Amino acid sequence: MSRYRMDLGEVERWVKAKGFRRVLIQAPPGLWPEAVRVSELLKRCGIEVIIHGGSCWGGCDVAYLEAKYLRVDAIIHMGHSRFLERDEIPTYYLECRYMDPEPLRSLLGEARDKLDGYRRIGVGLTVQWLDFLDELLIGLRDLGLEPYVGEPMGVLRYRGQVLGCSYHPLLKLEGIVDCYLVIGSIFHGLGLALQTRKATYAGDPQTQRVVKLEESVRNLLKSRYGRIQEFRRARRIGVLLSVKPGQMRAELAMKVKKLIEEAGKISEIVVVDDVREDYLMDLPYEAFANTACPRLSIEDQERFRKPILLPTEVAVALNRVSWEEVIRTPRYMAMKISL
Amino acid sequence: MSRYRMDLGEVERWVKAKGFRRVLIQAPPGLWPEAVRVSELLKRCGIEVIIHGGSCWGGCDVAYLEAKYLRVDAIIHMGHSRFLERDEIPTYYLECRYMDPEPLRSLLGEARDKLDGYRRIGVGLTVQWLDFLDELLIGLRDLGLEPYVGEPMGVLRYRGQVLGCSYHPLLKLEGIVDCYLVIGSIFHGLGLALQTRKATYAGDPQTQRVVKLEESVRNLLKSRYGRIQEFRRARRIGVLLSVKPGQMRAELAMKVKKLIEEAGKISEIVVVDDVREDYLMDLPYEAFANTACPRLSIEDQERFRKPILLPTEVAVALNRVSWEEVIRTPRYMAMKISL
Predict the structure, then answer these.
(1) CA distance B75 to chain A (A)
(2) Do A53 and B24 touch (CB under 8 A)?
């Protein structure tokens, strides 16, 4: 039995209405069993199906390149809400939402203890849990809390939604709320906690834990500053430019490269798809600037060993902005340079 | 000091003559330090350079997709001779040939002992060693041997050249020679040994070893047959189709899929770029058919754990051809199905 609710009927109607004959199905590895369900449905309708056997890190990571090369008519991209505004190949973002509200319900008890003392709470959820947004808000109100949610904005398609790289509507509530609660995983909470000075909690229905992220953030930022120091000593810097459609920031990469060169270092643009630890080690650069997925600098840094700085961290390393000025503000993870 | 001879002057003339402004440099990780030399040369000429930070497994693996997405004018593809007949993006295959003949010279002593008793020897070299082909032939003749080399053919651009997936000119000499000697690595020798019943030796100038491959081949084929048995028991089969331009065999993939379905199994096309062990494990198939790089089935099988059969092995598994009939013949590694 699947744990997910998927609009299979809607997918079928879309494929048929558009007259697509050949479809690529792309999903994160954890959803490959669900991809098979979609594949079986489409094959019964006489559609030729190809399964994408590569990575799928987010709605930013749509397999256009493979799709074009294979000359498929359309992509079914699973597990993420629509990220890109325009499709290079017609793309159906097939969300997979949890069907069982129980883990979220029982998390409320844990939340009550942890959130004691706060009143106004900014709340965000990953798309998988969004079916239970209203139930969560009622539950929080029943605990005497006053929950606030962000409105849809840009890549955040739904009220209350968060992404690991996008929290803007929640951050706009900073002046109103006493703290934040992000439902998803530590990963999703941490992305917000790095951009705000308000207390931030991650609630993970799978592990039934509600965690305050204060200490993680402090430790992480300390370690980040160490990486900035290493970057300062580096002579040759690779500027990572991704070919993933929602991570490809060519202008930013050129801007960062120029900034690094102005500081007297050597810099080159390095194009990447999935970033491999061994390749970063082999590449003849002592440090990297990251214009791809911001989370590479947060979650994957330990694996990578060489510094891989966010654009704003590069600006700090080159003394163009001050560290204190940017940490725990939205500028920290913004994939742009504002000097 | 570089160990390689590269025609940098020729690259520079090519880029200038064609008026290219923006160039992608792609090289295997081991040659990235050389890629920097090329990059520095081109940058001095005012060319904008992007370094490819992904894989580069052979001349089959040209980064057209990234190049198109980045809108570069041309690719400098390093370390391999031209593989693809036509370029989707103008591509310069910049070979890197060893400059020091000493390791090859001193290997001759080892070869003399090992090749004692043979007279006519089919000789092949990887492109890195090709500058010393004539010297090698003279050396072998001085040992009283009678060396034969294959003529250029298809992807083998030079007299005496071998690739890990291509040995045709040498195999044509099977009726004439007593044994084979492949200069490069065990890897390069093994690819030939699997396709011939003639004794095959691999000579590796780096390790100074000349190795008879008889036992490796016997063990490998035994293990391959075990994989074929596993494949027979599998119900769901993924047919790997690569997006690497020289490995993309869409027709073969469709043919293999049909064959598998005719045998009453479920089969789907799975598109891959670099093949990741964890992804193959996660994909909901018990076994795979490989239409990408044949060496995935040879060198990478142990890592992959699930069977990943060559097209001919699939035909054996489905009782369409007999094992004894194909092993140690060119059919074994041919990336096609001939029933």
Answers:
(1) 13
(2) no
Give the pLDDT mean for B130-153: 97
DSSP string covering A270-289:
EEESSPPHHHHHHSS-SEEE
Q: Do B54 and A280 touch (CB under 8 A)?
A: no
Interchain pair B268, A39: CB under 8 A: yes
Per the CB < 8 Å rule, is B39 touching A65? Answer: no
Say if residue B123's pLDDT is above 80: yes
pLDDT in tens, A105-128: 999 989 999 999 999 999 999 999
Question: What DSSP string runs through B274-330?
Answer: SPPHHHHHHSS-SEEEE-S-THHHHTSHHHH-S-EE-HHHHHHHTTSS-HHHHTTST
The answer, yes or no, to whether residue B259 has pLDDT greater than 80, is yes
Q: How far is B176 from chain A (nearest CA, A)?
A: 43
Contact A59, A84 (CB under 8 A): yes
User: Distance between CA atoms of A189 and A204, rounded to whole angstroms?
Assistant: 9
The pLDDT of residue A339 is 81
**Which residues in A lie closer than 8 A to residue B65 (C-beta atoms)?**
65-66, 69, 243
Map out the domains of chain B with their CATH numbers.
4-96 (3.40.50.11840), 102-212 (3.40.50.11850), 216-326 (3.40.50.11860)
Residue A267: list chain B partners with CB under 8 A: none
| 8 A C-beta contact, residue A330 and residue A309 | no
CA dist A170 → A149, A196, A197 (Å): 7, 10, 13
Q: How does the average pLDDT of chain A come out, rounded?
A: 97
| One-letter amino acid for residue B302 of the chain | E
Classify strands A199-204 and A179-183 as parallel, antiparallel or unpaired: parallel
Among partner residues A50, A248, A273, which is closest to B54 by beta-carbon distance?
A: A273
Contact across the interface for A269 and B51, Cβ inside 8 Å: yes
Q: CA-nearest residue of chain B to A282? A: B29
pLDDT at B71 over 80: yes
Mark the ranges of chain A whose per-residue pLDDT is less than 50. Answer: none
pLDDT digits (tens, 9 = 90+) for B158-188: 999 999 999 999 999 999 999 999 999 999 9
Hey, are the CB atoms on B29 and A282 less than 8 Å from each other?
A: yes
